[in-house]
């Protein structure tokens, strides 16, 4: 049936694909699907320009996707020389958002090979690629721990060390939320906001690791400004240790939810919730879902609205997210 339908299309409309998005107006709405997994469309054996044969029109892979809000819209691909093209996987993240303009096959690309799909690859890339920022922070953590243990000969570890360690972790959660919501998504244009917008403008699945100079500089400044100037050295080290642990956890969490790693086993529910939360922030409306390390922070600060309510509001206001990928998807 699908083959007959495709053959009945005009010559310039060859293949049906799917992309993530939300309709801009009611007139452009098509049929939308709520799914728990991200489908991919495999187009095979494109030989004759007048004939399209699809062996497997839709292959629902087991890729983790946004459960509540993964919507797929049909688009058309304009005619090209398809003689040598086989087994193209149409990814939602590489398709332009407009449902009216035809899409050239040359705009389609396979998923980036640099984005990890397994946990072992993700760990290796996180610690052993780029300028080794996370590795440097890990070494700093070991150094701080060793320093504090050395001081234990004169100042024994106590419940105060534990209290300041925990307090600095909780402080990180609040700092993370407000820096994201009020500074990186500020209404005032500044370089940090531009850099963060560049992150949003990339495909959702990409390698996102902050440079070592930023990580080390941030942790060093935090040690002196937040802790050392008002706390004795032993407690300052304990507080800085908690702060750095929370910072490294955030760096890993933000990195891993932007990869294609499938979360399984113990704790997978937490990581899936974190990825879903962050995908909503990227793909539905960047004015909500700011929390990261602790997704419940969005509940605390009322930035976790009902997904369908946000979509209806976006459609009514014709809202355009400025952080929606390479083509700035209209929501």
TrEMBL record:
Any single GO BP term: lipid biosynthetic process
Transmembrane regions listed in the UniProt entry: 125-144, 156-174, 212-231
Lineage top rank: taxon: Eukaryota
Molecular-function GO term, any one: iron ion binding
Keywords from the UniProt entry: Membrane, Transmembrane, Transmembrane helix
Domain named Fatty acid hydroxylase: residues: 167-302
Name this protein carries in UniProt: Fatty acid hydroxylase superfamily protein
Organism name: Nitzschia inconspicua
């Amino acid at each position: 049936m699908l083959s007959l339908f495709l053959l009945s299309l005009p010559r310039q409309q060859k293949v049906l694909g799917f992309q993530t998005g939300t309709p801009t107006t009611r007139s452009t709405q098509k049929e939308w699907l709520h799914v728990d997994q991200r489908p991919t469309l495999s187009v095979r054996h494109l030989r004759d320009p007048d004939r399209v044969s699809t062996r497997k029109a839709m292959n629902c892979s087991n890729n983790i996707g946004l459960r509540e809000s993964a919507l797929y819209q049909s688009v058309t691909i304009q005619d090209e020389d398809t003689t040598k093209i086989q087994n193209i996987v149409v990814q939602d993240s590489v398709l332009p958002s407009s449902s009216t303009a035809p899409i050239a096959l040359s705009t389609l690309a396979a998923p980036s090979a640099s984005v990890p799909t397994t946990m072992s690859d993700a760990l290796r890339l996180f610690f052993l690629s780029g300028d080794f920022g996370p590795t440097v922070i890990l070494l700093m953590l070991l150094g701080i721990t060793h320093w504090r243990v050395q001081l234990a000969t004169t100042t024994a570890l106590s419940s105060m060390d534990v209290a300041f360690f925990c307090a600095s972790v909780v402080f990180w959660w609040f700092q993370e939320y407000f820096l994201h919501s009020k500074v990186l998504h500020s209404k005032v244009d500044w370089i940090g906001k531009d850099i963060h917008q560049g992150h949003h403008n990339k495909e959702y699945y990409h390698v996102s690791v902050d440079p070592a100079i930023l990580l080390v500089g941030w942790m060093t400044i935090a040690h002196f400004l937040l802790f050392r100037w008002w706390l004795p050295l032993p407690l300052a080290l304990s507080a800085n240790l908690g702060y750095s642990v929370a910072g490294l956890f955030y760096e890993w969490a933000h990195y891993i939810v932007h990869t294609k790693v499938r979360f399984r086993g113990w704790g997978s529910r937490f990581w899936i919730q974190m990825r879903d939360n962050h995908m909503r922030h990227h793909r539905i409306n960047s004015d909500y879902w700011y929390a990261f390390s602790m997704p419940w922070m969005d509940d605390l600060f009322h930035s976790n609205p009902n997904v369908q309510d946000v979509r209806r509001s976006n459609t009514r206001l014709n809202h355009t997210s400025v952080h929606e990928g390479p083509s700035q998807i209209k929501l």
